[in-house]
Amino acid sequence: MKNTVKSVIVLVLIFAVMMLGITGVNAYTAPIIAANGSAAVYEPLLEVMPDAQDFEPLYDAADPAASTLTDVPETVQGLYRETSGLGYVIRLSTTKGYTGEPIELTMAVDSEGKISGIKLNAFPDSKHFGEDYPDSYLGQDSALGGVSLVAGVTYSSKAFKEAVEDGFAVLTANSLVSAGVKSDSQILLELLPSLFPGMANTEGVAQYTERELSGGSSTKALDSANGDGAAYIAALFAAIGLLNFNTRFQDSDNVYVNELQANGLYKFYDAFVKNTLDYEQFYLTRPEAEAEAFVHGVYQSTGDNLHAVRAEGEEIRRNIVLITMESMSASYMERFGNTERITPVLDSLYKLGLAFDRVYATGNRTVRGLEAVTLSLPPCPGQSIIKRPNNAGMHSTGALLRDKGYNVTYFYGGNSYFDNMETFFSGNGYDIVDQKSYKPEEITFANIWGVCDEDAYRKVIRTLNEETRSGKPFFAHVMTVSNHRPFTYPAGRIRIPNDSKSRAGGVLYSDYSLGRFFAEAARQPWFENTIFLVTADHCASSAGRTEIPLQKYHIPALILAPGLIEPGVVDGIVSQIDLMPTLLSLLNMSYDSHFYGRSIFDPAYVNRAFIATYQDLGYLEGDTFTILSPVRRFEQYRVVPTEENPHHLEAMERKDAVQVDRAIGYYQTSCKWNKR
Is the pTM of this model over 0.85? Predict the structure, then answer.
């Protein structure tokens, strides 16, 4: 007990020193910061982002031609990047208010896509507006779900809100902020009300915790948490410190101790810091036998979803090339309404092969996409299986094809140690060719993510030419890297300058490189005996007005096979986990499977998709979208297409219990059985 009290006292003292230190540093550096650049411009920026070090102007409405940003609304007067990584500050002006006079405001958006500061500079209706109205925007993301219009000043408050939405629009359009990707601190904060349903002043605690976990200013946060809130804050941080200390004792020899710690905040915090979430502990479940019986009925399987996939006719021995393109959203294609002409190759290929119009990625990270096409499993909560320990020897497409006599290789333009790719792929039947395998003369251009896509594709062709000498068919999985911030690529290749650092440039160059690959591959003797699957790992962003906006998970996918597959269109819902089983079925492959993905040509196939974030698990079937969330919650939405958004979601008042049970059955069992 004495040691515990001592530890708490030490933590409190450390915390107090940190507060004083932060306050002192801020007081010392603020004048220096303000002196950088023009005070007339930067001082208003510091009012909404006081901890800024310096600003880099990205857009000025007075000289729009000097900026590389695209899709900038007229409302945006200026956009500035904070140089140390805190986020962005946007100056906005609109005349859409009731009086027609300018409404001017400045807002700061942090690196996690949330409003961290906002100030009303000019507003003729402000006396009717309420001084606290701008504060209601603090902590909001692009969905602005916690903001309401002001009665009696509806026109002006609507104009204010639309201006803020325009600010978010320019950030997301230029991929400056990935607002839909939640940080660890965000995840914890969103669960605070569920963890402490009776806590007073939860909002004040949340604001304070968010600033602390993100390294922000604690002094101002303390001011916002008044009364009992301050006491709760101190208790919360003391408790977190103790929890962090006590996690080392989570496995006790005393069974009663283990049972007592199995629920509540203790166990949740342990899961949170390990980046894993145990499905049965945090999500809705059904009796184990019931959930397993559902899956066995779907797949005619036994055990951990072991089932026989049997094809009619002789197996077709073709080479296989799987290309997963970095961040290639379907929304970039002309086929799906884009007018920028940045995917001419993909749009052309869509007319030549088996084209999928409604494929959905399982997640919003590269490892999620790789997991989907390699393991053919629904996404698990927490980290991808690829980043988890003990993930070797799994039932993978690579291991399956190696058993069938294929040479199996994973090609990556960067270093495969990133995101644990090297350990995962080498442990599951793949040889690896990554940046470490390149000779100096094979690299013409590289950035922080690896070699440019052209270099990567040339390496693929050289390697496959060598592999064909073995007389064995090959399976090549290619992961590209160029369509990724900072969007740099070789000069003189495409119409968008290589120093523009724009998403459109990254997309166009990635598409250009894909065309070069197919042009060169077509000259190789193995081309006519090869089947190609081209898809994406995930979309460029996942921000939207719902927890899982469907349009932000819509990816392209097509299968090409000269002389084997006639051009066609698949317009039903297809999951990313179904793509490789579909390709294998086109080759008449029979095998014993643990895959949850299945061929779209299977008579028992159901059009459905699995879509997830770090913590939310989505299941789409028909026009019903079910989302399972901690702590044992679910939401359901109806897909109601609009002219602007064919994936528009509306909350369902009357829930579909059958769909909820199906979602639970898939996720509950796959989260258990993927550990084999």
Answer: no
